[in-house]
């Protein structure tokens, strides 16, 4: 597959174009489904980019929407073809959060709040292995290693000199105290976190316990933004058996405002590094 083709993003863009065509015809998803003798849920999944779409699906939908511009039809058909190619993550088999990986791979910036652990993009190999082992106690060693490898591969966006991911991570103090693996492992992880925080495109802040209730109290979430203005921002909320993706402007706006308050209440960058350094000393002392 060509390196510049991201199937997840292609599906999203194609879905957005198909939704525009449907809305231009003043048709509901239910009406389209009735015309094509398919379920309404299929039309919805095609439009939100959560389901792969075939060229036949595109042809049929263009017929329903009476698209007469052959160049537009050809362009949509090509997007459908590209969207069915595989990203690098597909080589690792069934990854539950593969949709998220596709979005992260193409994102320009990522703002995230993590209350429990050090964010995956900033984890050491040993810490990632310990986290995954603890979180998935019934997983086989092979499956754990696969997940660690995928997480390590995702971190290449942080080290990409040409197109680094702009990362802003707000971490709850609890993640610094939680002993994952061992105290020595925590020393290495927190030192790595400080090192990463010095990268020009990485910002790390800590929310101390003394702040009490704050806008992130409901749990982890991430906000992804993309270089192409036609790609809407996405709020990602990770779940145990399923994940939630919010793309409506109202939802993204609400989470963005929450994040601004969260950043304002957190320790600033220098205070954060000092605080993490003190935690390193604490874990080193045992």
Automatic annotation (TrEMBL):
<dbReference type="Pfam" id="PF19054">
    <property type="entry name" value="DUF5753"/>
</dbReference>
<dbReference type="InterPro" id="IPR043917">
    <property type="entry name" value="DUF5753"/>
</dbReference>
<dbReference type="InterPro" id="IPR001387">
    <property type="entry name" value="Cro/C1-type_HTH"/>
</dbReference>
<dbReference type="Pfam" id="PF13560">
    <property type="entry name" value="HTH_31"/>
</dbReference>
<protein>
    <submittedName>
        <fullName>Helix-turn-helix domain-containing protein</fullName>
    </submittedName>
</protein>
<feature type="domain" description="HTH cro/C1-type">
    <location>
        <begin position="18"/>
        <end position="71"/>
    </location>
</feature>
<dbReference type="InterPro" id="IPR010982">
    <property type="entry name" value="Lambda_DNA-bd_dom_sf"/>
</dbReference>
């Amino acid at each position: 597959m060509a390196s510049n083709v991201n199937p997840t993003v292609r599906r999203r863009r194609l879905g957005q174009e198909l939704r525009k065509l449907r809305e231009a015809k003043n048709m509901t998803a239910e009406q389209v489904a009735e015309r094509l003798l398919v379920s309404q849920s299929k039309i919805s999944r095609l439009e939100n980019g959560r389901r792969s779409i075939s060229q036949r699906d595109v042809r049929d939908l263009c017929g329903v929407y009476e698209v007469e511009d052959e160049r537009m039809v050809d362009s949509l058909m090509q997007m459908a073809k590209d969207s069915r190619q595989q990203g690098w993550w597909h080589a690792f088999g069934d990854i539950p959060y593969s949709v998220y990986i596709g979005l992260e791979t193409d994102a320009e910036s990522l703002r995230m709040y993590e209350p429990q652990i050090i964010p995956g993009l900033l984890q050491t190999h040993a810490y990632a292995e310990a986290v995954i082992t603890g979180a998935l106690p019934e997983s086989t060693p092979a499956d754990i290693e696969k997940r660690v490898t995928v997480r390590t591969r995702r971190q290449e966006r942080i080290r990409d000199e040409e197109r680094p991911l702009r990362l802003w991570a707000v971490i709850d103090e609890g993640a610094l105290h939680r002993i994952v693996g061992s105290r020595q492992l925590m020393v290495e992880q927190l030192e790595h976190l400080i090192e990463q925080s010095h990268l020009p495109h990485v910002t790390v802040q800590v929310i101390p316990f003394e702040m009490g209730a704050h806008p992130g109290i409901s749990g982890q979430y991430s906000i992804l933004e993309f270089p192409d203005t036609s790609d809407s921002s996405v709020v990602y909320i990770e779940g145990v058996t399923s994940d939630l993706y919010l793309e409506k402007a109202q939802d993204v706006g609400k989470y963005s405002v929450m994040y601004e308050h969260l950043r304002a209440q957190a320790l600033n960058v220098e205070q954060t590094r000092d605080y993490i350094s003190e935690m390193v000393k604490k874990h080193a002392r045992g």
